[in-house]
Amino acid sequence: MPESSRCRARGGCHPPSPGDVVELRVHGVIGASADDILDRPHVQRVAGDSKGGFYRPRRGYGDSRGACGVVLETYRWSDLRSGAAARTLSLVLLLPFMACNAAAWMRPRAKVSGGVVWVGCRLVGLSLTALYVLSFVGVALDLLACKCMSLDSCLGGRTWLSWLGGQPVGLRIALLALVPIAAIWVLWLVGSRCGRWYDNFIPPTGEPADTPLGSIGTHNAKPGVVRLRSIHVATGLAVLDLSLIAALWAGRGPNLLTVLLTFCAVLTLVASVVLLCVPSVIDAVAGTPVVDGVVHALRSTAVVVTIAVIGRVAFDRNEWPAENGLPGHDVAVVLLVGAQVVLLALLGIAAMVGREGSLGRLRWSGPPLFACLAVGLGVSFATEFNYRVSDYLDRDLPTADVLPTSPVLAYKWTMFGFFVSVIGAAVAGAVMVLFTRRHRRRTADGIVARDFPEVAARTARRRAQVRDAIARARFTERLCPLAVTYCCLVALSLGFTALALDELQPSVAVEGLVSLPSDFVSAGTQLGSYLMALLFVGLFFGGLFAYRMTAFRRYIGTLWDLGMFWPRAAHPFAPPCYAERAVPELACRISMLVRQGKYVLVAAHSHGSILALASVLQLEPSVVSRVALLTHGSPLRRFYSTLFPAYVGTHVLSEAGSRLGWRWVNLWRDTDPIGSWIFTPGRKGDDALRQRSAVDRRLRDPQDLDARGRDTVWPPMCGHQPCVTDDRYEAAVCELSERLRTG
């Protein structure tokens, strides 16, 4: 429906005339209702739907125009990555996969190092899927089928388990093997269906953009995701197959059928790893039947082998000491965690070799940091899952070093490692805060003295508050040593699990190595379990209240938006990428307005600036010549350019500014811990540098220290809040509008 017809049908809004400037506002992480974004009480949707829609003030209810007569419009996209509580909670389950997927997009610009990081993150993602399956194998096969069902004390009073207690161990394992299979199916279901709210969107059909960031949403990424999903499903089934085959080897020893099944399962694992090491195969465009045939054959082979293995185990009547647990499960957990440590070290080395700038900058530490976060969360979930089920099976008996229904020893080492990582990171963070506090305060004192040269006794307290706010905001620039410390602690703590192969308890081993009291180590291990439970509960309620309460939305929403912005490239079960709709939809709207003869001023706050930048890079030259960009509270340099140098580096920012003809203004505050300047805080140099310097406009915050005679309270510190109610924001709107009109 044409816009004029749409407006008449919805209450008589009058479309702007050709030559008008449309101020298209894009909100950030916190989001808001359309009337709050536009600062108008009555609005109506003129395009899009309830998930991602464009809104304008309704005419006839006050002034519907903005500064200097611009037409107000907003793009509200916050519901694309939120919605029902069940869907938001599913993101908690997918959080390790999301962090791993984001790590792949943080690869350096260097071709070799970037390729190594890309492949390494995909292999880390594959190990997370294997760990997910192993955690269910540990619960269903090791704890339930082997240990619990071999003990009368565990089966007593549990009719839902006792009916299997007298059955052969092979039959018990075969039946409970359906639990890990169901877990794989749930993972497939959640990963594929939690993006159904994009179904109403009509994707673009034009050529992809010529920049990696601008190509988001302009090409069909589904074939690559489907291939990755098949590979991960095949890997999960192969891990289950090898766990079941270990029981066959324990009962009957090797025979021709067992050796053949073992060979097929190992071959499936090796083929999955090899395919992930060849990015051109996975990332091939649609319509490549050879690649799709190989991947489909791999998944089908895994399914057939799984059916054969389960059938063989179900009819196995050989008895073996099942009360000792599933054979080889403890070794499998240690080997998998050891492989993850090697991959994390490889990522760290590749990112450091391909870095741009000094080692003290956060620019190179993104891939190992987020990969460590993904592995740490995955190991924590697996450990806590096994120990909570174990606590239920042992009827809440006091936790000892070894109980009949205890999980494998490797999980106790991961609990102790988690305790060491948390304590070490907390100590490192405290040291960093204290170590950098003097320098940050000295810098903040200089800023305050420059902004408020007049010193008065009545403003001394407020001056100190402003200085402390600026000092806290500048701590973001000092996170690199803390990130490196955290990565080293995670890798070291995961390496502790190798000691489980010698059947060493953490309390005994640590006491012998560093002479710490065994009781202290046991208490630390127990505390690690509580910290894991607290982490899971925190994420659970954080996901439940995310985008429902401002306090949760500010912190949980930042992590969600950072991870869900990037397409699924490293892990197919990561949450779907909302930018695949938001970016092309915003670009299409801008193009539509320009074709109607209007100028478009895109005003983006916080995370909305990355959506605006990607959309600008998708515009045709004839369209972008009638577009200007106004960003405020933008994390483009502080976070995105630092963490994603290959996609939002300085070369991409300069390319966007050049395409816009440098019709770009960025407003930033020293008190903002997220947003900052983009090109330069204000330097002099050649013409190119002066163009970049003209983009950034620093806003003094607060505007004054003393409100006496003008107000009853001190002028507020705005920090990361939007600037739309600031007079300096309106001045920037008027300036850019005039530059568009005079072209």
TrEMBL record:
Keywords: Membrane, Transmembrane, Transmembrane helix
Signal in keyword set: no
Highest rank taxon of the organism: Bacteria
Transmembrane annotation, as ranges: 84-104, 116-141, 169-190, 231-250, 256-278, 290-311, 331-353, 365-383, 413-435, 479-501, 527-547
Protein name from the UniProt record: Uncharacterized protein
Species the sequence originates in: Micromonospora violae
